[in-house]
């Protein structure tokens, strides 16, 4: 029997990845962080047995959680990332030349350590604009008032330490932490996984109650359960598909589109088109 990693997301249905060897395994104060060398996807990080990223497909998630929301803001200078310990989201945010400062608040330093050692190409750790804090993201955002242009929630799944990142109180703290033209994005799980529908509904209901504009959008990530992944966009007014935002996407991408492998203007427009069964989950 070959060495395999399995993430079962419904009874005996799941995803199988061929492994070569285990590179890192640490039960931190919060969770089990592991890194494997795989047969096809480069290095793979899992947390509590759930896939977080692989070297080969991480670009989809990180480009999609970062760029739609970054371009939705007219001049994003100060950004807060909750979670994101592997560094991929910060790397994408820092591609925007308007950015002066990024606070990345990761609860678990083991994630950053594992990423620095086994995913050396992912984090922009030497960028002077990035400040990494090992703190509870919920407490951190609760204390921030009208400070940030953009908040990005790059947590893990709604079990364990990331559970609170799917609650209404948390989104209210995020709203209060944003300036008046602030915008937010969050990862919101796979619409194909029945077990996560409750969390998806809860997040979108909360965002609709707290923010003025809320949209779901999709990306396709082969190593996440069922491959289809949802994200939330929320703002205090700006519409993420307005002409104004699309003009910014077109202009902004001239600066760094060569470094992107998934996101472009057409993807920005298409990602917000939702299939009927997905709309039903959040209606
Ligand atoms: N089931 C996967 C959910 C993962 C969300 N966060 C991934 C971290 C990548 N920066």
Which key features would you list for this structure?
single chain, 283 residues, alpha/beta, Spermidine Synthase, Chain: A, domain 2, Rossmann fold, 2 domains, seven-stranded mixed sheet, 9 helices, binds spermidine
Descriptive report:
The chain has 283 residues and is of the alpha/beta class. Helices cover 32% and strands 31% of the residues. It folds into two domains: 4-54, Spermidine Synthase, Chain: A, domain 2, CATH 2.30.140; 58-282, Vaccinia Virus protein VP39 (Rossmann fold). It has helices at residues 58-72, 88-93, 109-118, 137-143, 168-177, 197-210, 243-256, 265-271, 276-282; strands spanning 4-10, 13-27, 32-38, 43-47, 50-54, 78-83, 101-105, 130-133, 148-154, 178-187, 213-220, 228-235. Helix 3 (109-118) links the parallel strand 7 and strand 8 (130-133). Helix 4 packs across helix 5 (168-177). The mean pLDDT is 96. The site of spermidine has 14 residues, from strand 5 and helix 2.
